[in-house]
Amino acid sequence: MDDINETSFVVDEVSNVIKESIEATIGSQSYQQAKINTWTSNIVEAILNSLTKLNKPFKYIVSCVIMQKNGAGLHTASSCFWDNSTDGSCTVRWENKTMYCIVSVFGLSI
Amino acid sequence: MQLLLRLHSVDFSSIMTEEGGRTDSHRESMPRDSTHRLSLIGRNRRQSSMNSIPRNFDRRFIRYENTFRMEPDDDRRIDIAKVKRIGNMVVDSAIKGYQYDPNNAKMFTSRLSEQIRNQMKQLPANRFKFITHVCLGQKKNQDLRVASRCLWDLKCDRHITITKETKDYYVTITIFCVYSE
């Protein structure tokens, strides 16, 4: 059973990692146009670093979308051609009073 | 010896009906599409005795044979310009007459990502995995930022981004092509 956890994508674990990173970076902040650049880079880098620390044989793709709350609609979709048994993805949607944040992590087994 | 062989063949057929696997030790490489999962399941079972058939092993753990290939062949490399051309073509034809409609935008986005993925599958790149990420939004003077970072092999893996805009909406597509050994 341990073997399986080592070589397949575990969604819960990754989802926790993502939530922690988002909270740490923009948890208590309001939308600021000047800082948005830094925030997205920080979130994405923090997630990637934590994922590498898990030491799994995976290639990761982390994608983050931050949008100001203005009444506009936003739709994201992703379509993947991979090996269903070993690869996986995890998407987390987070919001506060002034912005939305959607983070997707794709893990592809080596 | 004969008896042994017979027992073995019985097992083989029962396994075939259960999971569609193969029990002989000679393994060929098989196409790795998700629809072939059933036939791949038996590949990690190499038994030397009759009693060692693991009935409750996890079917998700599949081990592949070594191909000793670390990089894509020359004729199987991804031509990034071609990917961009195909992506542009698909997106242009998809948004040609499209007006943003919150009710069916969801369907439109997922259909668009599927269309792009299907086009990617036609490429001659044999050992590549594709991820298509589509982001469609309404324009209402808001700000938006899409960022992505990847941990992969710089030599073999690529990505491209396509952004299209109209008066009411914008669409951002990122296609990741990842080589898998």
Shape of chain A: globular
Named at the architecture level, the CATH assignment of chain A is 2-Layer Sandwich
Percent of residues of chain A in beta strands? 25-35%
Task: Show unreliable segments of chain A.
Answer: none
Q: Roughly how much helix do the residues of chain B carry, as a percent range? A: 25-40%
Counting helices, strands and paired strands, the structural category of chain A is alpha+beta
For the sheet with most strands of chain B, the description reads: 3 strands, antiparallel
Write down the secondary-structure element order of chain B: HHHHEEEE
Radius of gyration of chain B: 23 Å
Averaging pLDDT over every residue of chain B, what do you get? 70
Q: Based on Cα principal axes, name the global outline of chain B.
A: elongated
Strand segment count of chain A: 4
CATH names the topology of chain A as Ribosomal protein S3 C-terminal domain
- Please estimate the helix content of chain A: 25-40%
How far do the termini of chain B sit from each other? 40 Å
Number of strands of chain B: 4
Topology, please?
The complex is a heterodimer of chains A (110) and B (181).
Chain A (H helix, E strand, L loop, with lengths): L1 H6 L3 H16 L9 H18 L4 E11 L5 E8 L6 E8 L3 E11 L1
Antiparallel strand pairs in A: 1-4, 3-4
Chain B lengths: L1 H18 L17 H4 L39 H16 L9 H17 L6 E11 L5 E8 L6 E8 L3 E11 L2
Helix pairs in contact in B: 3-4
Provide a quick synopsis of the model:
Chain A is α+β, with helices and mostly antiparallel strands.
